[in-house]
Amino acid sequence: MLNHLFGLMVQPRRQWQQIAGLSEKGLNRQIPYVIVLALLPALAWYFGTTEIGWSIGSSGQVRTLTSQSALSLVAVFYITMILAVVAIGFFIHWMARTYGAKTHPMKGMVIAGFTATPIFIAGVAGLYPVLWLDILLATLAVAYAVYLLYVGIPIVLNVSEERGFLFASAIVTVCLVMAVVVMVATVLFWSYVAAPVFQH
Questions:
Q1: Which DSSP string corresponds to the chain?
Q2: Cβ-defined contacts of 174-182 (< 8 Å, 24+)
Q3: How distant is the alpha carbon of residue 102 from its chain centre?
Q4: Distance from C-alpha of 135 to C-alpha of 138, rounded to nearest angstrom
Q5: How many CB atoms lie within 10 A of CB 181?
Q6: Are 73 and 88 in contact (CB under 8 A)?
Q7: pLDDT tens profile 159-186
Q8: CA angle 40, 46, 52 (to 5 degrees)
Q9: In which band, very low, low, confident or very high, does the pLDDT at 133 lie, cut at 50, 70 and 90?
Q10: Residue-wise pLDDT tens digits, 97-117
Q11: I want to staple 89 with a disulfide (CB 3.0 to 4.6 A). Which of 109, 115, 129, 165 is the partner?
């Protein structure tokens, strides 16, 4: 798992080639990658919001969440990350035939999971919740994840660079739509199910 993580961050093209060479059974063994890696931002944000806290508004007052509130929010955060990877993986598999690629559902999941690597790593910034820093790191992580997708799709699915570019662009569009859905769902969740509860 660490080899894949390091390879995708340092030598993405070579790492995608190694992933492309995996058998279906080998791809199935990659399932724990996302399950474990998604724990990093979840645990970091739990610690950051309960122990260090956020600076709320212009007053500069730092407030922390109660453990129970943070746990419920982080659990939903973790599940959402896993479901997002599964959904994007499904769309990769579903759209593959359109672009002349032969695939199976697990290959789509693996591509989606490995593509999300920089986002999961950047999520560790939640240990120290500073809004401007977190936004900067998130922006850089998303940009690199998009780059990984554009590099990985043609290699793993064995399609031409031109088709791979169009395929990856379609997946990016799906991801943008999903991001909007998640943001709306987050607002509704905070408003009607479990709003953040701050310590006094």
A1: -HHHHHHHHH-HHHHHHHHHT--HHHHHTTHHHHHHHTHHHHHHHHHIIIII-EEETTTTEEE-B-HHHHHHHHHHHHHHHHHHHHHHHHHHHHHHGGGT----HHHHHHHHHHHTHHHHHHGGGGGS--HHHHHHHHHHHHHHHHHHHHHHHHHHTT--HHHHHHHHHHHHHHHHHHHHHHHHHHHHHHHHT----B--
A2: 174/88, 174/91, 175/88, 178/84, 178/87, 178/88, 182/80, 182/84
A3: 24
A4: 5
A5: 12
A6: no
A7: 999 999 999 999 999 999 999 998 888 8
A8: 115
A9: confident
A10: 888 888 888 899 999 999 999
A11: 109
Question: Can you read off the two tokens belonging to residue 53?
Answer: 């806290």
Tokens standing for residue 96: 């593959």
